[in-house]
Every structure is written in structure tokens, then in C-alpha cells.
Write a structure and sequence with these properties.
The protein has 223 residues and is mostly helical. The protein contains six helices and three strands, in the order βααβαβααα. The protein has a single domain, classed as Creatininase (Rossmann fold). Helix content is 39%, strand content 6%. The N and C termini lie close together (12 Å).
């Protein structure tokens, strides 16, 4: 399991690295119920400047550079023998829209898988007669399209049961439930930004319910 996030401005009241903290924290909770290995997180990603610029502390990594970085991280795992790798993202995944970070991870995973198959099974491997049963065997334990899976921390189904925002009620709730020291609502007086105003309605109790939903959802999707 590889948690992936960004260093992005989340108002004056949330710690930088909010997205990565949430991915890490949910995985830690999942590890209490499911055996897994959590790799070191990827902190820096294509945050974009949609919320704020460099002067606010956002660190934006170009999407092509990010994709190359993810490709090489995944390459080391795949060539090292791992075959059940999950990239867990919490950033710009509203309703599971395929935005830059998600697309970069997905593209890196599929490009790597094809490269690995060509290098290990040879050029034209799929077209060889010995692989005529390829499709029938996809439900088995060695489906190459399942070697690397990209998932959101909060699926569309979970988002519809709770809510999804940026540094507001929902994100502050789940972040404060996972790492209470990373949220300081008293700092909200320093900003009148529209997207943080309902953070005053956040609570650790709400966050715990969100975490429970996330963990149950991931348990169904992670083999």
C-alpha cells in the first residue's frame, strides 16, 4: 500500500500535507483489521494552484515529472517481486473524477505493466498460441491488470454517505480524527476564505464515522 498526497494550502487551520496525512491515517486504521505493508508515502505531487500559489506554501510538481517519479517507484516494487500493489490517493478525487494525480498514477501503472510483460515474456507475448487462454485465466491469481491498483481513500459511495470538501467540515473532521494535532480551528479567524467556513462544524466524532466507512469500503476492494 502506497499512500499518495500533496503539500497544498488547506487554509490557516490545517497542517500542510493534509491529503497525505489522511491517506496514511486511513491505511493505519485499515492495518488494524487487514494484514498489509504500508510503504513510505509520496508527499509531493501535482497539487495545482487551484486553491493558492507558492506564496501560500503550496508545492506543485509538474504532472509529467510526477508520473515519471511514480513509474520508477512502482518499477522497483514490481521488479522486486510484488504483485498486489495499491496506490491510495487523497487529492482531487471528487466523485472519482479522473484528474491529473489519479491519471498520472494510473498511466504509470499500466505503462509499467506492459513494459514488464514485454521484458519478461517477450515481444508478442499475448499473441503467442501458448497464451490463447489468457482471458479465461484473468479471474485467477495472476492477473497482470490487477498487479497495481489505484484507489481513492474516499470512494464515490463513501463520499455520498458523508461529504467531500477542501479544508472544510468533512476534511477537517477526518483529519482531526486521525491526527488531532494537525487541525487548529482557532486559526480560522485569520481567513475569510469561502471554502473553510463550515470547518467550524467539523468534529472528531464525524471524522471517526468517515474513517469507518472508508475502511469498510477499502476492505471490500483490497484483495
Amino acid at each position: 500500500m502506497i499512500p499518495v498526497g500533496t503539500i497544498e494550502y488547506h487554509g490557516p487551520h490545517c497542517a500542510f500535507g493534509c491529503d497525505t496525512f489522511i491517506a496514511m491515517g486511513v491505511l493505519e486504521r485499515l492495518s488494524q483489521e487487514r494484514e498489509l505493508i504500508m510503504a513510505p508515502p509520496v508527499w509531493y505531487g501535482p497539487s495545482s494552484y487551484a486553491v493558492a500559489g507558492d506564496e501560500a506554501g503550496t508545492v506543485h510538481v509538474d504532472v509529467d515529472v510526477f508520473e515519471e517519479n511514480i513509474y520508477h517507484i512502482l518499477r522497483s516494487f514490481l521488479y522486486g517481486g510484488w504483485r498486489n500493489i495499491y496506490v491510495l490517493i487523497h487529492h482531487q478525487y471528487e466523485q472519482e473524477n479522473l484528474l491529473p494525480m489519479t491519471l498520472s498514477c494510473m498511466k504509470a501503472a499500466k505503462k509499467l505493466t506492459f513494459k514488464f510483460l514485454e521484458e519478461t515474456r517477450g515481444i508478442g507475448w499475448w499473441g503467442q498460441n501458448e497464451n490463447r487462454s489468457f482471458y479465461e485465466e484473468l479471474d485467477g491469481g495472476d492477473n497482470p491488470w490487477d498487479w497495481i491498483t489505484v484507489l481513492p481513500v474516499m470512494s464515490k459511495e463513501v463520499q455520498e454517505k458523508t461529504g467531500y470538501d477542501h479544508a472544510g467540515k468533512w476534511e477537517c473532521s477526518i483529519l482531526s480524527a486521525l491526527y488531532p494535532e494537525t487541525v487548529d480551528l482557532s486559526r480560522m479567524v485569520d481567513s475569510d476564505e469561502w471554502f473553510i467556513q463550515d470547518a467550524v462544524d467539523s468534529s472528531q466524532e464525524t471524522g471517526e464515522k468517515m474513517i469507518e466507512l472508508c475502511v469498510e469500503d477499502l476492505k471490500q476492494k483490497i484483495k
